[in-house]
Amino acid sequence: MAQVFIANPKGGCGKTTIAVQIAAYYAGLHQPVMLVDHDPQKSSADWLRERPKSRPEILFSSATVGETVAVNGARCVVHDMPAAWSLAQADGLIQRCDKVIIPVLPSPNDIRACLHFVMGLYRSGFLGSGVDVGLVANRVRGNTRYFSVLEEFLQKLRLPLIGVLRDTQNYVNAMDGGLSIFELPASKVKIDLAQWEPVLAWLETSPSPAFE
Ligand SMILES: Nc1ncnc2c1ncn2[C@@H]1O[C@H](COP(=O)(O)OP(=O)(O)OP(=O)(O)O)[C@@H](O)[C@H]1O
Ligand SMILES: [Mg+2]
Q1: Contact, 8 vs 107, CB < 8 A?
Q2: Computed from CA positions of residues 100, 4, 22, 162, in that sequence, does the dihedral angle turn out positive or negative?
Q3: Closest ligand 1 atom number to CA of residue 81
Q4: Which of 33, 88, 162, 182 could bridge 202 with an S-S bond, Cβ 3.0-4.6 Å?
Q5: Torsion over CA of 92, 95, 101 and 105, rounded to 10 degrees?
Q6: CB of 39 shorter than 6 A to ligand 1
């Protein structure tokens, strides 16, 4: 069983968007997957409530940060983290975490906030404890100047950029109906499916594949 955390204390960087895409992707493969909403705003819970009953099932649990969750047979557990939580609360998480995805927007403020978060992960011993950490640049538009700033920053941190997702209403439209982009007509989301390929490949890499 593998646990994947989607985390970045910066609000609005795409944690919920990415968490639900991953959960729906595995559900679509008929894998037993659970989505855990750690956010009092309950955005993942709201999304799941809208999900048509005809779509592949996603198990659900809500939890506070650091709380242990009964996984009820799920073999992949995707954790949607809130914006506000402190690494001091994360001791319990470190033990149980296999992969962390950090979504980051290519803007100066977001890059700065991400840098603080990653430094906190280093200091807390989270990084270097065998957990795979990967960054996803989210809402990237063409040749934004800040995209190259982001790439430079990642090279310095020696953290992998596991994916680049464009800014598109496809995510908004899909999520409005409790769906993911993996459940929209392929002709509409061709570019997005291609952008997800490296992220999904990273999730399946050893030593901690998201599905075991
Ligand atoms: N790639 C994208 N293209 C277009 N819109 C996006 C994309 N990713 C996220 N969004 C939109 O950006 C907003 C914030 O995304 P989301 O709620 O996933 O962020 P979050 O990190 O979970 O926020 P919070 O910190 O409040 O939990 C939402 O309105 C979402 O629809
Ligand atoms: Mg959220």
Answers
A1: no
A2: positive
A3: 27
A4: 162
A5: 40
A6: yes
Mutate to test the pocket of ligand 1, among 17, 43, 79, 164 (most ligand atoms within 8 A of CB): 17
Two tokens, residue 22: 């991953």
According to DSSP, residue 128 is labeled T
Determine the residue of 10, 16, 147, 195 to mutate for testing ligand 1's pocket, defined as the one with the most ligand atoms within 8 A of the Cβ atom: 16
Residue pLDDT, tens place only, 164-203: 999 999 999 999 999 999 999 999 999 999 999 999 999 9
Q: Residue ranges of the domains in the chain?
A: 2-199
- Indicate if ligand 1 lies below 6 Å from the C-beta of 12: yes
Cα→Cα distances 159→89, 90, 102, 115, 191, Å = 23, 20, 10, 11, 25
* CA-to-CA dists, residue 119 to 36, 60, 107, 115, 123, angstroms: 25, 31, 18, 6, 6
Taking the centre of ligand 1 as the mean of its atom positions, its distance from the CA of residue 17, in whole angstroms, is 6
Please provide the CATH number assigned to the domain covering 2-199. 3.40.50.300
Identify residues whose C-beta is under 5 A from ligand 2, the ion: 15-16, 43
> pLDDT tens across 88-143, in order?
776 666 567 889 999 999 888 898 888 888 888 888 777 777 788 999 999 998 76
* Residue whose CA lies nearest to ligand 1 atom number 29: 172
Strands 132-140 and 99-104: parallel
